[in-house]
């Protein structure tokens, strides 16, 4: 039997795909450019914007006769037993392969933002909690496990990570981001990409680009970012994840910037992404994003025009289901309205990815090779470690924490006894199971209340809810106050309820008018503080909330950003002292709730000054976090000023010593301050960091290898340049807690950086010199 060249695995992928394309009809090519979403809800409670009015009727058997590009969320649409779901997906794939002339299966994709969004799969901490760990290797390990779980059931592509940089913490999707700094987002997000891709799963970077800069923090609002903010804050995480992480897919954002929707922007999706950055993978639409060019953006008059605009911009695949890239596109190609070369280019990229995944090979089989277990013991151990590293001790002024093992504890608050308090909006229980209240969660999720009782078995623990997350009813205050008054310490567990499109206080489409605690939780906290009993505030949230109202009145403050299924034991471990907190803030915590959305990346006019009565200075700065031990920063190498060229480098070192009585982790952060530049620059910005774990008395030498490229920025002409001049490299425990400063001068002419510029500051940890 003669094997067609496109089936021959010995040939280069490009040659195989060229041969296959030459044999395909326009119908077969366009069929590779869309997905289908089986079982998607058509009512008003969907999991994607406008899902109810974007549903499309189709005949499955007729649709797949020409092939199919993608299968949308076979596991993430409704509760499906993982083993049975894997078998059902395999049967569907065999039907797809058997229906077309070439026997090509679809790429199956799923959401995997904080774990595989499937029933009975591990619910890991949300990305904002990854940022709080400042531990990229641990995030990479998590992503590898997520990828292994996806592959074990036949999924090829994961729609993660989110690389949007927080610009306004009122935005509902802050929980999905890694933080407010592009370097932190880039390094942690790149680690996630490496992990997912190492498992053979296509990582999809989203949302490209500018989505988090939407006006007024409203989901899917216009983006008002300037060109330099876009270039220097929005884009760097994506570039790093592509260049260093090897991501094979990018998702176009819903939003429009300066009047141009991302899904119709060839400057973004082709000239920048493909021509300048050299990206060769696939660009996929965010769900219904191509149709939105007609219905929401109104830059297209028909589905065919929307398809033409998106293909021209560079979108290869329409997700989640066929609407514009099906019959409207095919008819436009036949009429000459859309050049067939556009379809060929997109189909070639899709088929190259399928070739890489082994889907064009004759020996391809869709059935799982191993038993399916999506919440293994190993997963849970890793979820616990991530959760523990992500908890941030914001304040502990009088050493109230850790709690005494035999104390009387009153646990109060609407988040204390609710398992969903641990989970973000893209976890399966919050994302899907809210529509299936009769179905159990499928995973064990200990609450803070249950975990604290297990953690401190000799303590007397009472509980009162006090209030709901959003309900204005204060009828439960009386019991909560009574329980608190009887205790030695009150643990107030407050925060968010994750949801979608207004069905929660955090999550997609759950944007906040201000940064006050939701509902009457602030009033409950006031009442608890008024009892005179020391109050430990525990926040389980998807964004930072203003805490200035209680500053100096609380015994301790603990912040956890939706820490996942093992978050309850992690928080309880911090309260008991079993866990020494090591999390650091990936976002600033504000003083007051309204009027001044703010991140730490501010030029001089964005800082507090005499010309306004409003002070935007945060209560707790970016990078802040306390520990139950103490660290000394000694013997800094930055004693003498240094000079380097515009392509030069300089090492800065410091010895960190654990001077306390227990093991702990310090996060050494390196910030750049540029006193004079040709355009205004952030007062400080993160350019390097290193997490260091030390036993009592142990010391380590941390060295940062600063390169001049790390000082580059976008100048007035739009070039990324390194300018000569004086700089300060600040070794710090947060963006405001500077321990040592190295003065360096960059000498020489202005240098324009190229595609090979250094994106990260390499670090080295070595034994401290004796």
TrEMBL record:
Stretches assigned to coiled coil: none
Protein name per Swiss-Prot or TrEMBL: Glycoside hydrolase family 3 N-terminal domain-containing protein
GO molecular function, one term: hydrolase activity
Keyword tags: Hydrolase
Domain Fibronectin type III-like: 666-735
Organism: Streptomyces violaceochromogenes
Keyword Hydrolase appears in the UniProt entry: yes
UniProt key word Membrane: no
Similarity annotation: Belongs to the glycosyl hydrolase 3 family.
